[in-house]
Amino acid sequence: xxxxxxxxxxxxxxxxxxxxxxxxxxxxxxxxxxxxxxxxxxxxxxxxxxxxxxxxxxxxxxxxxxxxxxxxxxxxxxxxxxxxxxxxxxxxxxxxxxxxxxxxxxxxxxxxxxxxxxxxxxxxxxxxxxxxxxxxxxxxxxxxxxxxxxxxxxxxxxxxxxxxxxxxxxxxxxxxxxxxxxxxxxxxxxxxxxxxxxxxxxxxxxxxxxxxxxxxxxxxxxxxxxxxxxxxxxxxxxxxxxxxxxxxxxxxxxxxxxxxxxxxxxxxxxxxxxxxxxxxxxxxxxxxxxxxxxxxxxxxxxxxxxxxxxxxxxxxxxxxxxxxxxxxxxxxxxxxxxxxxxxxxxxxxxxxxxxxxxxxxxxxxxxxxxxxxxxxxxxxxx
Length: 382
Ligand code: G3I
Prior knowledge:
Blueprint: H1 2-19, H2 32-36, E1 41-46, H3 48-51, H4 56-65, E2 68-71, H5 77-80, H6 90-101, E3 105-112, H7 132-149, E4 154-161, H8 174-179, H9 183-194, E5 199-204, H10 210-225, E6 232-235, E7 238-239, H11 246-257, E8 262-270, H12 303-322, E9 327-332, H13 365-376
Parallel strand pairs: 1-2, 1-9, 2-3, 3-4, 4-5, 5-6, 6-8, 7-8, 8-9
Helix pairs in contact: 1-4, 7-9, 12-13
Bound molecules: ligand G3I.
């Protein structure tokens, strides 16, 4: 069965490479990857089935349409480093091999994050926080081992993820409780030492809110003032039909670019479902109960909603192309609607439509729009 799948995947990939029609309804002369080449990296978060070949259809479309990948889960510490003296590189090796085989700009995600954190990382055998010295050593070993293993192949790392609250204060994570704000420069320094050529990023959600935006900018400036390498600021952009507004996104793009960093849209998706709370806060801690009312499109998406979604997506992509001098990459958080985490967050078991490809792996209208708009743009990087 696996051989048949691989065989089908190869046929599909060759077909796609020759015709550029993967996942597009109409015959297109090009793919997003082709037309955006040299302008903005176009990325996709991938799951293990896409990189190990189980999802051969998805895997072929990603290879045709995207030129950058981010691992959705397989490099988070609970997966890659589940015990202090045990790493599990099976999925991450397959991820990096997949990226290398398809000429991708490969992202590592994420070295330091309070969530999906390996349970041993910050505590001793009695569950008490370890000392600052012990945590420094653990951080160094973790980062050195993982960044070192993929040196020269992973080109950019989300070094620290979500260190701030929406009000701009530091999140009271274990890393912060034990090391204070110094955990951030330490993580960047260890990553740089492990691969001096890799790009290093700070990544967060709700980056349009002024308080978080200003705190991130001040943290970045402090790193730079100390001569610590940081190349990029990632705006996750888990969006809804209401939030964030375009002018706020533009303001943040300009503000982040003013630090001299590249700006990246790192985890883009846009839910059509009712949101139980305002804003774009992607904290996985926020959960609400399922009712039928909260899942209005379980049998299909009305044309009017689909049209509005494609229009809003197009407005965002036009904005990103307008700022392509400072935006180095736009990464979608998943390939097809059925793959998306948004079907299960903040309410489990709903049917959402947040990505560029539908549940049959057909491209939505936005893909053709991106292709035609990208063809018109010429980009000079700042
Ligand atoms: O692997 C287990 C599996 O063994 C178990 O049977 C299954 C049962 O629920 O759960 C599986 O784990 C799930 C994991 O994804 C892998 O699929 C977790 O429940 C689920 O909570 C987890 O969700 C991920 C989430 O991060 C957790 O923090 C999403 O897939 C992933 O898209 C999401 O990504 C994050 C970014 O890394 C950082 N920014 C926010 C973004 C959304 O939360």
